[in-house]
Amino acid sequence: NRQKALKLGAPEILLNKLLENFPIGDKEEDSSTEYLLIILELVLSESNSLKEEKINLSRQRSNSYKNSQKHVQLVVERLHHISDHMIINGEKITQPSRHVHSMGKILPFIAFGDREASKNVVQFFHPYLKWDFMDETITLSEEDDSFEMPSADEKNRAVFFMQRFCEIAESLSYKDTMIRDIINDMGIVDSLIKFLKINLQPEKLKDPEFIRKKENSLKLVLKTCAGLSQNHSLTQKQLIPETATLVNKLSETILQVEGLGVEAESLMNTLADEDTSDKEVREFVVKLKEDSKNEKKRLAEEKRNAILEEMGMKITTTTTTAPSDTAVSSAQPSGFGNIMTDLSAFNMEDLEEEKGLSCIICQEGYTFRPDDILGVYVFTKSCTIPYNDDVHVKGIEGECETSGYSTVTHFNVIHYSCHEAAARAEKSMKQPKEEWEGATIRNSHTRCNNWYPIRGSAVTEEAYQITIERYFNNMSRIRKADLNRLRLTVHDLKLLFHRFAYEESFSTDSKGGSSEHNMQFIPFFIQMGLYLLHQQLKSISSQLTKDTVNTSESQLTTFLTSLRAHSDAKLNKTDIDTVISVDLFIYYLTLSLFTHNANTWPKIKRAFVEGAFVVALEEIEREDHVAKVKKDRVKIVFGITPKSDQEDPTEETDASDATSRYLKHIRPLLVFLRLVDAINSLIHRKAPESDKAYWGELVEQYLMQNDEQISNDMLELDAKYQSQILSCPSVCDHIKALNLREELTAEFGDVESYIKKSVGQMLEASEVKVELDAKRLI
């Protein structure tokens, strides 16, 4: 749809509409202006991602060149006003509203093709580009003698505009070389390179404390360099050889600094891109990476030899006859020699066996290769999910939807390094295989198109973050999604639970994998989701607005309030103007795994049970309403009443049939509830408790350190799911299994009375005029 909009000239139309009502002076942006800004940015980002000449932006802008400079001035003045307003009101300068990010990103489009307008954009930002100002402390030794410490307001204003300049660099069109030339001519690229040369010297990279202090500025500079060097050979050539070498060293350095290695690797990938990089630059970067790889191999070989020597073993380059107390290994590849083993040096019984998850290729896991990250092959397909996770108004059809993902697995575990090595080998075969073609064979002939990382206790946060970036980059190749990664992960896990609850196949699309394999996968969904939530909460540069940074728990609280309102409305026979869908209910039930720990989950469990009663009843009402609407439409169009519809679908006469309909809706929701409850018991409750640490981090640690125990627990849960949960005969038995018997007995006498009262009173006020078969429910 975005590409169609581009072909129809949507950017110019949206821009003209935006500029008609663009706020001037102290006038605040209204909601329509904010939405237009965000929509225009999204459409332009689609254009910028297209390397093919599908969209000619210069043609779309041809009618507006005469106003480009005026429009640029309008936007930059607005940005200046917003920065002043935030500083005066003491707002956090690194967390402007979502539309402010969009405002900076549309500037290159406004100026596209107009050299003077492009020059005005760069000249406006140039005075603020003091890269050291991004850090909490400014390194005075890097400045001249005349340097004066900036005031807090000056520093904040510079930070605001440097972030906007970085966003501009990242969002520049593949084809927009004019503004890149101007940026280069004004010496901005030189200042970026100078900053990197000063701060990425080998002796400084060895000091983690220094790197942490420079984290903010280094991230910003690396992102800006990556954006400016895309498809711009002049900038690319300035980065080699010295700066690229230093950045490559940073991308390979294991640092406990979130995202820094990711940005360095992103810049190196831009310089090595086959489509947009200069041939000379690309060859240099490829050789640089290959040399680094060979150096790593050499160091690894030295370490290997040292370990062998400690074990009483040695490598010989000539064939010898082994004495009686030694053994010679089988022939080694050329260059390795023969391994001579002194059998008296160790006892074979002292050797450890791999425990927990192990790679399907090398048969090793986190016991023997603790810092080599494992993952599982998965198959992901695109799907539609709700754009907003809010209770919607009754009677409004066509809920807004967006792209999401649905993931399943055969749970074949493999090191990413082993996957890469196998993919390279298969690509060089006489009959080469594509990456995922070969992976499908290794994945028990089950289709796969991605690799899902599983973090071990010795895997650094930096290494895990890089694999998450790789995972979501692969997802975006399947289909681009607009929601943030946390919401995508929660919806993905929700859809996996949905397969369990509604007994849907796991192998329809992937042609392999069962409930057993996907049950083992669930804890690592939770691991990634908790990590993403934790990063979102602590991020100082989140793209979210201030009042949405910490909303996951408050959104769930709001939803539970809506559930109670619906329940009260049913019991009190009052009308309510909103409706809660099954999809919304199971989304928040899944979200609870990321917002509530083992101590707080029991407090909301009953609310979800009662919510399930409401949602199941509203689903029956919705079905009856749809059937009635269809019948009315037939009458209106044809003037007749079909035989099948001559009886009112809302007038059930058989309690047994009505109960079957109700059970059809309530059972899957209760199965869903029991699985979430079981996960809380198996994972959240077993995590260590601490008053000092965030509970989500403690669950993450438990998942990192106990992969063997977790795998066994999930296999037991799958067996219970197959033999007990699915075959549970009644609503009453499900509720008893949720450990609510004691609470409900104290209040209602027994669970059976609770069900009769809760469901019965709701039915009295509902549109479903029928008596349910209480015996079948209980």
Structure write-up:
This protein has a three-stranded antiparallel β-sheet with strand order 1-3-2. Strands 6-4-7 form a three-stranded antiparallel β-sheet, sandwiched between helices. The model is unreliable at 58-64, 140-145, 319-336, 392-398, 540-550 and 649-653 (pLDDT under 50). The protein is 59% helix and 6% strand. The chain has 778 residues and is mainly alpha-helical. It is built from 33 helices and eight strands. The longest helix is centred in the last third of the chain and has 38 residues, at 601-638.
- Distinct helical segment count: 33
Biggest β-sheet strands, sense, barrel: 3 strands, antiparallel
Residues in helix, %: 55-70%
Q: Note the beta-strand portion.
A: 5-15%
Biggest sheet: strand arrangement = 1-3-2
- Radius of gyration, in Å, reads 31 Å
Compact description:
The chain is mainly alpha-helical and 778 residues long.
Any descriptors?
mainly alpha
Reconstruct the topology from this structure.
Elements (H helix, E strand, L loop, with lengths): L1 H6 L2 H11 L10 H18 L8 H4 L4 H24 L9 H8 L1 H5 L3 H11 L26 H20 L5 H9 L2 H12 L2 H4 L2 H6 L1 H15 L3 H7 L2 H11 L7 H12 L7 H32 L2 E4 L9 E3 L9 E5 L31 E13 L5 E2 L7 E15 H12 L7 H8 L7 E5 L6 H18 L6 H17 L13 H24 L13 H20 L6 E2 L2 H14 L5 H38 L16 H30 L10 H11 L1 H19 L5 H7 L3 H8 L2 H15 L8 H4 L1
Antiparallel strand pairs: 1-3, 2-3, 4-6, 4-7, 5-8
Helix pairs in contact: 2-3, 3-6, 5-8, 5-9, 8-10, 9-14, 11-14, 14-17, 16-17, 19-20, 22-23, 22-25, 22-27, 23-28, 23-29, 24-25, 24-26, 25-26, 25-27, 26-27, 26-32, 27-29, 27-30
